[in-house]
Amino acid sequence: MSLIHEALKKVEGVRHGAGARAPAPASAAPKGNWPDKRVIVAGALIAVLFAAGVLSYIMYRRRAPVAVRPLPASPVQPESAQSSADEPAVLNGKGVELYRAGQYQDAVREFKAAMEKHPRDAVLYNNYALAYMALGQNDEAEQSFKKALELAPAYPEALNNYGALKDMKADHGGAVKLYEKALSLRPGYMEAHLNLAIALDKLNRYGQALAHYQRYAALNQGQLPQGFEKKLSRLRSKIAADGKGPLTTDK
Prior knowledge:
The structure is a single chain. The chain is mainly α. It folds into 2 domains: 69-151, Tetratricopeptide repeat domain (Serine Threonine Protein Phosphatase 5, Tetratricopeptide repeat); 153-251, Tetratricopeptide repeat domain (Serine Threonine Protein Phosphatase 5, Tetratricopeptide repeat). Helix content is 65%, strand content 0%. It has helices at residues 3-15, 37-63, 87-100, 104-117, 122-134, 138-151, 156-168, 172-185, 190-202, 206-219, 228-242.
């Protein structure tokens, strides 16, 4: 085969694409590590939707009524202590400080030590019960509240606190009786009015509940906890629908 013939075969192969590769278009972007544009757009959209969801949740939380729970009184210094140097008074004082700091188990220890020195002081049993109540140990708290009221039946704080415990245990009727007794002993007991209103509301005794909410607000210089205005508006609507005034005895 001549050299001319060999050259013609090579030219013919190139013409028909035998073994040839097409050059890349001039406009094609070089491949690298950058993500596809569609991935970028999708990621940005997801981020926007997530941010919108977070903002909506924050706005909802601001509008939503706050859950209402009964208010137990804070532990106090027993009146039986003769002086600040009295050992039970010192122990109780430490317990009160620990309670207010949220160290309830340590508060239990101090109150118990004080009770061993003054076993008939109703205030110490009340404080001891409050610390157990804060720990969620309701059976122990109930026994101590009962002991406090056995020693001092006319003890408004212990009545209110025991009522708060009963309300938390869903014994709303029992709570109402304790709150009413506390208020019979101390008509201006602000926290007891609020707690009684909460319990009556749960029992669907809306008129009486509204009256005690209003009394609480009056004693608290018109101030109500966050979310209560909506609650009062709801109560007024229910009362209007039932045709009952705020002082009507509801069933």
